[in-house]
Amino acid sequence: xxxxxxxxxxxxxxxxxxxxxxxxxxxxxxxxxxxxxxxxxxxxxxxxxxxxxxxxxxxxxxxxxxxxxxxxxxxxxxxxxxxxxxxxxxxxxxxxxxxxxxxxxxxxxxxxxxxxxxxxxxxxxxxxxxxxxxxxxxxxxxxxxxxxxxxxxxxxxxxxxxxxxxxxxxxxxxxxxxxxxxxxxxxxxxxxxxxxxxxxxxxxxxxxxxxxxxxxxxxxxxxxxxxxxxxxxxxxxxxxxxxxxxxxxxxxxxxxxxxxxxxxxxxxxxxxxxxxxxxxxxxxxxxxx
Length: 289
Hints:
The chain is an alpha+beta fold. The chain has helices at 6-25, 30-37, 41-49, 58-72, 76-82, 94-104, 110-153, 155-159, 170-176; strands at residues 202-208, 212-218, 221-228, 233-238, 242-246, 252-256, 262-263, 271-276, 280-284.
């Protein structure tokens, strides 16, 4: 804190000495004051010693003294009012110059409005001019596209020769223009997948009542091997034979050629069953799992 006169320095020393005496009378330490007021002990000691060089600006010191007074039971507002000269701002030599500079910087009110009008005009020009250019470019592109479509879709007009001299008759023009030939586009017919006709082969549908491991062979080739869960349904078709091996025969319901479904065997047993068009379901002996 900067003090301009000796009187202000002396006043600050009187305040500090008064506060220190009152604090010592009540046997309160500087650390206790610091904890209660949240002021650094160095600032409290500087206030008591009247050391203005260590202290911050006068407005902060005034607040410190009020909190100090509240901590030791003194009216801080009255104390700072009585010594009000200490907390007056110190005049500097640069203030008159700053005031003169502020007074010299005068901007007429018309200048901002003129700048605003200029900016608005430039914005309108930027918005309108590119849009008109884009519309003209789009129109040119559409005209070019129409011309290209007409030239592609009119083989008669494109095949007409340019006249070098005036024709002698309309019959010559008709003879000179060749008639367009139509070419047929070959169509690819999909190759039908081979299917089993009614009455031929065998169709086996499987529905699981519980989880079971199964292996299915269609005409001697393994088509599926894994675990099916309860509620799952599968269908296999074969020309000669569908062979099913189940690890839980009682959980597998089998329907051959859309007949009523029956279990492959007792629950918890391993069964191998072959389904053929002629013999139907043929159980085969299964090894012990």
